[in-house]
Write a structure and sequence with these properties.
The chain has 292 residues and is α/β, with parallel strands linked by helices. Helices cover 42% and strands 20% of the residues. The chain contains nine helices and ten strands. β7, α7 and β8 form a beta-alpha-beta unit.
Length: 292
């Protein structure tokens, strides 16, 4: 559904290389979906005291310097790409402020680097897992510069958790906009009942993709050589995937590998060149942004 008000992508920045990779990634996505950007710089509680002691004047100087740098970035983005870009400089806990700013600005997604530089730059990396876990909107984690940000090949892991099917609307949204091929990936449990359930889940997802005219392929791994996260990453790398789309949690504690910190965290931590889109489960369904 198209809306008259543009959606906004939040980009946390610490000016490290990887944060700037994430900003470049966000610019490409914003151009694709005609979105606005919001840049966020956080003077982290605790870190400032460690480095400088409690000094309000020093904190103000840091904020002023960050604001000046962000203003220049915002002007450059508008001039070069035609994207409206707001700036936000705050003090506090970065993962909490990301959640707050997302709510204040009604952002539909976050695109961030997974590792920062030294000193204050470490904040992006050290808080990425908390940001992902607490976010009510999808978070795309970027680790490296890319020659192309076009999501042509999207890996979509499929498991037995009902929540994992909430990714389908996002897959359809990207598939239509980018002309993507959704690469459904699953594995055999070597249990007749569980394998039948996987096939049932795959069949439902395939039908939804077909109904929306989205290209897809399906690959079921016969025997896992490692765990599901390892195999997912191997498959993604083997096909030159542009994006990995995962759920970060599940309400069903029987599926321990899906609880963030194990499966999802392994994907985020290990994937070096492929951006990872992390979606938290929503009990009442999933909303899609980016102009959808």
């Amino acid at each position: 559904m198209q809306t008259t008000q543009k959606n906004t992508i939040l980009v946390p920045l610490d000016f490290s290389d990887v944060a700037m990779y994430a900003l470049d990634h966000a610019i490409h996505v914003a151009k694709q979906f005609n979105n606005n950007l919001a840049l966020l710089y956080v003077v982290e509680d605790g870190m400032l005291s460690i480095l400088l002691g409690k000094n309000e004047k020093q904190e103000q100087l840091i904020k002023e310097a960050a604001t000046a740098r962000m203003e220049k970035l915002s002007i450059d983005i508008k001039t070069q790409h035609g994207i409206d870009c707001s700036i936000n400089v705050r003090s506090g806990k970065i993962y909490k402020l990301i959640t707050d700013v997302v709510e204040e600005l009604k952002c539909d997604s976050v695109i961030m680097g997974s590792h920062g530089a030294s000193g204050i730059g470490q904040l992006i990396g050290s808080n990425s897992s908390r940001t992902i876990m607490h976010s009510n909107v999808p978070v795309i984690v970027v680790k490296s510069a890319q020659t192309s940000n076009i999501y042509k090949n999207i890996v979509f892991p499929v498991d037995l958790a009902i929540e994992s099917r909430q990714k389908v609307k996002w897959a359809i949204h990207f598939g239509k906009s980018y002309g993507s091929t959704i690469r459904l990936f699953s594995f055999k449990y070597n249990d007749q009942l569980l394998d039948a359930k996987i096939e049932g889940s795959l069949h439902q997802i395939e039908n939804m993709l077909k109904e929306n005219g989205v290209n897809y392929t399906k690959f079921i791994k016969e025997d896992l050589e490692g765990n599901f996260a390892d195999e997912t990453l191997k498959y993604a790398e083997s096909i030159g995937a542009d994006l990995l789309m995962i759920m970060t949690q599940t309400e069903d504690k029987d599926f321990k590998e899906l609880v963030f910190g194990i499966y999802a965290q392994q994907i985020v931590n290990t994937s070096q060149s492929i951006p990872v889109m992390c979606i938290n489960p929503n009990k009442i369904g999933v909303t899609t942004g980016w102009g959808y």
